């Protein structure tokens, strides 16, 4: 294959999803053309001259998987000289964490297949996408150690054990129950909305996120949170 001597800009999307069991998965596409035809890869594609990087990432994701209207954060740029056999490609990666039940995916454009894969059972990935995915996992886990999880990932009413289990799934290890509850309650972003009903065990308290307090907390206390090092990982 003849290589192009121009530097081309692309974007790749790392979409993490939590299923009903709060297992952490990543969305992959099966490529329908060369290079790496039939291999699994992250959704991605070229940036057009008239669009921003973020808009390009959203467009590519929708075109290849049918998923749209999600918030993605920029992760990093990747530009090793040999990352693509077609020539010089630099990609800017974006990542997101979503409830996969709210974002059904289907193969679009020249994508052969789309599937959510458990992080513990990944196929071989095309290009340098294993490196990109590893960096995204580390970034997600670092971020979640210092920020409250998005309320969109949980049911409207949830227990503290459910919330802790979500963090443990994403972080990949168990958390101290007392420390976790103290830290999350000190944030004052939850409100008690009742107790469980029709359960065989002692009913646990149910909570919901106070959306206004949650958004205000994220906006006004982000720097203070990072500086004080409030850490869910302990």
Largest sheet: 7 strands, mixed
Question: How many beta-strand elements?
Answer: 9
The CATH top-level class label of the largest domain: Alpha Beta
**How many domains make up the coordinates?**
2
What is the arithmetic mean of pLDDT? Answer: 87
| CATH homologous superfamily label of the largest domain | Nucleoside Triphosphate Pyrophosphohydrolase
The CATH topology label of the largest domain is Nucleoside Triphosphate Pyrophosphohydrolase
- Computed over alpha carbons, the radius of gyration is 20 Å
Fraction of residues in β-strands: 25-35%
Low-confidence parts, pLDDT < 50 over ≥5 residues? none
Q: Helices and strands: which structural class?
A: alpha+beta
The secondary-structure element order is EEEEHEEEHHHEEH
Number of helices: 5
Note the overall shape.
Answer: elongated
Percent helix, as a range, is 25-40%
CATH architecture term of the largest domain: Alpha-Beta Complex
**Separation, N- and C-terminal Cα atoms:** 51 Å
């Amino acid at each position: 294959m003849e290589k192009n001597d121009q530097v081309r800009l692309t974007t790749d999307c790392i979409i993490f999803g939590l299923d009903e069991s709060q297992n952490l998965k990543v969305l992959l596409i099966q490529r329908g053309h060369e290079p790496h035809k039939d291999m699994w890869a992250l959704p991605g594609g070229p940036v057009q001259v008239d669009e921003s990087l973020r808009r390009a990432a959203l467009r590519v994701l929708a075109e290849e998987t049918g998923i749209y209207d999600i918030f993605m954060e920029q992760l990093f740029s990747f530009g090793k000289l040999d990352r693509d056999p077609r020539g010089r490609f630099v990609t800017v990666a974006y990542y997101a964490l979503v409830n996969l039940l709210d974002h059904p995916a289907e193969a679009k454009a020249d994508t052969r297949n789309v599937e959510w894969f458990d992080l513990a059972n990944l196929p071989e990935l095309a290009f340098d996408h294993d490196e990109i995915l590893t960096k995204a996992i580390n970034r997600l886990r670092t971020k979640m150690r210092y920020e409250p999880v998005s309320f969109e990932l949980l049911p409207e009413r949830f227990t503290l054990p459910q919330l802790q289990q979500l963090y443990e799934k994403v972080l990949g290890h168990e958390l101290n129950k007392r420390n976790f509850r103290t830290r999350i309650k000190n944030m004052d972003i939850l409100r008690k909305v009742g107790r469980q009903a029709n359960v065989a065990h002692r009913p646990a308290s149910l909570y919901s996120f106070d959306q206004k307090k949650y958004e205000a907390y994220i906006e006004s206390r982000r720097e203070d949170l990072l500086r004080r090092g409030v850490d869910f990982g302990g």
